[in-house]
Amino acid sequence: MTGLPTFDAANAAYEATLHERFGPALVAKDLLHKRKRMQGSAFAFLRGSCFRWAEAATELCPDFAGCAVVGSVGDAHAGNFGLWRDARARLVWGVNDFDEAARLPWPFDLVRLAASLALVHDDMKLGEIAQAALEGYDQGLAAPEPLVLEGDHIWLRRAFSASARERRKFWKALSDAPEDGPPVALADPLRTVSAGAEPLRFTARRAGIGSLGRPRYVASGCWRGGQLAWEAKGAMPSCFVAGREDGLAQALAHGRFRAPEPSLSYTDKFVLRRLAPDSRKLRFEELRKQIGRRLVTQMARDIAAIHASRGDVPAITRDREHIGAKGLAVAARRVAEWTTHEWKDWRG
Question: pTM value?
Answer without folding.
Answer: 0.96
